Amino acid sequence: MSSDKGMTELMARVVLSKRELPAWLADGAAMYFANARLAADGLDCGRVPRERLRRLQAQMRDGSYTRLERLFAVGRGELSLEDHRVAWGLVFWLAHSGDRRRRREHASVLTRFLSDCEGGETPRDFGSYLELSVARLEHTWRKWIMALDSEHPYAGVGGKQVAKKPAAQAVATEPQEKPETYPRPGRNRISEHIKERPPIRKENRK
Q1: Which residues does residue 37 pair with via DSSP β-bridges, in sequence order?
Q2: What count of Cα atoms within 13 Å lies in the side-chain half-sphere of residue 43?
Q3: Which residues on adjacent β-strands are paired with residue 85?
Q4: Which residue of 121, 127, 161, 162 is most buried, as measured by CB atoms within 10 A?
């Protein structure tokens, strides 16, 4: 199962838009394409940053993830690390959940939402475009995210379907993922990478 061409083009439209789009959509689409790869038959957009998915699922289990109502209200440049995970997860759900008919419905909804944003209108909450309350949208989306396979390169959906490899083979053939990192707001990027060094002890000279 893969995202439809129309949805991929819509996500590209989001990334390239010069308009002020909602933060969750702009950043979520950018992260969606960050894991894309060029393939012989087109752009493979279904790969999942597995560490991000595992952490999102863990936060959903303990209830510490960002709720959609709050996410929709966050402005550009104000998204936290947790907000970024949820934004990516919502965009991934729009692109890959359900059958082809459902994904086309999502593309149609996103087209209307983008048109309102680019036309200078203040869009309604995104759930209303799907004819869902925010609470119902969150329930549907959360249930789908929790069912994803965080050990599968495509989480079991999206992109190219690949057979699972035995664990020993997977370790030998698949490169290890880099830890999920984002610059934290209000902190100096360089200082985050400076480790404290132990004090240098001076030897007593006789």
Answers
A1: 44
A2: 15
A3: none
A4: 127
